[in-house]
Amino acid sequence: MRIKWFSLIRITGLLLVLLYHFFQTIFPGGFFGVDVFFTFSGFLITALLIEEFSKKHEIDLIGFFRRRFYRIVPPVVLMVLVTMPFTFLVRQDYVAGIGGQIAGVLGFMTNFYELLTGGSYESQFIPHLFVHNWSLAVEVHYYILWGLAVWFLSKQAKSNGQLKGMVFLLSAAAFLISFFSMFIGSFLVTSFSSVYFSSLTHVYPFFLGSILATIVGVRQTTSLVKQLDKIWDLRKTLLVFGGGFGFLLILTFFVKFTYLFAYLMGFLLASLATIAMILAARVLHEKTPNVQEPKMISFLADTSYAVYLFHWPFYIIFSQLTSNLLAVLLTLIFSYGFASLSFYVLEPWIAGKDTPILQTLRPLPHIHAILAASTGILAFIVFLVTLMAPQVGAFETDLTVNGLKQAATNISQTKVMTERAEADSLGIADGTMLIGDSVALRANTALQTALPGAQINAQVSRTTKTANEIMLNNSQNKFLPKMVVIATGVNNPENYKEDWDSIVKNLPKGHHMVLVTPYEGDKTKETYAIVEKEA
Hints:
Blueprint: H1 6-22, H2 33-56, H3 61-83, H4 98-106, H5 110-116, H6 134-156, H7 160-188, H8 193-197, H9 199-202, H10 204-213, H11 223-231, H12 234-254, H13 260-287, H14 295-302, H15 304-319, H16 324-351, H17 356-361, H18 367-388, H19 394-423, E1 432-436, H20 438-442, H21 444-450, E2 455-458, H22 464-476, E3 483-487, H23 496-505, E4 512-515, H24 528-534
Parallel strand pairs: 1-2, 1-3, 3-4
Helix pairs in contact: 1-2, 1-14, 1-15, 2-6, 2-10, 2-13, 3-6, 3-15, 3-16, 4-5, 5-6, 7-10, 7-13, 10-13, 11-13, 12-13, 15-16, 22-23
């Protein structure tokens, strides 16, 4: 039995993610859409397991894993197969180390891959094509461990009520451990990506959904649903659903990935808003027995998982070839096309189901040979791309080389600066130090030519706050030359005024400072408006 209006929750999660990826400047908090998926999945999976026990007095663990396999794996494999040929349209930087990415995807370990390689969800010059699969990895980890846990509890439970009680307590304990791991960890990490990607810290929305599943069923109408059906009229039910959706929109518009609030309370609030929507949708199903869910809504919900998988690599590729709006349009066309192929053809075919579409396709001549040949060709292309792909992209190589040149130059200049400082009445050496970010790092050679003898201190993703700390450190160690050039500003510019005021205030006596105007060339970045305003 399909519960009407649950589809709207899936659509909401996907919508927020797409808006975030396509128009990050306008919807900086769309990443909360992932937590909508997490909470709903935790609710749905747990509720179905409990209802299976209620009906059969046991849980078929192998059957559970088989259903999850047929739903999860085919779209993932199809995503890898069909996106790799498109990588020939972009430079090789985008497939650097692609073998590791693919291994992470197929092994459902993308979140750990990104953690180990120092990946950042937002601040990547060359975004990984499959970084978005981090959420699928967390989901699969939950499915495996939680499926085993509920199955084990079902072996101990003597009644459905007892199983619900044990699931509730275990869910609550797991939620508290995960939530406080993120809450405390957010104060300790240097990059929020560490707690964002981690299965331990970001799994708690699933357990909030699991807690809800013990009191709100899917196919079974629980006493709470019956009671709310009596208390809430249609208007109040819609208000609760709309309230949850509206709150998610507020988070989407006003909370950014770099805000500490997102990690302390943001993900929790997004999950609670989703719970309100789930509860309202379940009651709304009871209140609309004669209303059919529109087919378009069902279609958008059915394909939401596969669209999530396909959209990111397609968007990254198309955004390198054309304008953002056209890239979005192409991404949606290809994503929904392949998502439909996956959901309506590939997945039921592999699962051995018989659908009207498959009844039409199976009699076609040589259909199996065509599918096998197509799969073989695509697999060969994946192998070829993986074989030809460099381990390190040209962009990253250039940054590394310039970093080494910078280090060598700075070592030789330290002695010269010390000798000059001894001759100066204030102990200040003549010369120039440029503290910059990746732009200055890549331009190291050109800067050395334009400013002979200048000390270039540049690093990828450097912020103005960090530049301030470097300036103070060099001053305390008597290595700061008379002229200081600050060439930062695009990375984490939210506290522009405070950072600039601080760095000017901290400039030691006898030194001069030059501030290089920051520039953000990508108008789709959320930092663009801030940079333009302050510059």
